[in-house]
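Now for a specimen:

…
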Amino acid sequence: MSDRPKSEESVSTEDLSCEVCADENPHFAAGDRWMLAGVLNVDTAASVLEASRAAELPASGIVSLVRVDGVDSAAVAVLLAWRRRAVTEGKSLSFTDVPATLSALAELYDVEELIARPVRSAA
């Protein structure tokens, strides 16, 4: 039995296509709500960051990690880079469906609040 929310099953891989990563290993999909899937680690982090640079931050302010199934410390770096970008651009940003392993890494590095707490735009 999975510890993921049931909504994960409704996300199709078509929604997660990535020009940088190729269809056989999708990682990043931009849009109103950013989606990540697969492994986010030292081998994939640079391509995910590169793909996200050309994309507008999600209009909804949400980055879903519901389909991420493997992480290392590079995943923490990617999320922190996106948070810095959101602050710089004055936009809202929050992460949903954060895998337990990623939360544990963030806690280990003492940055769990930066990942768990939403960035809110100045109003």
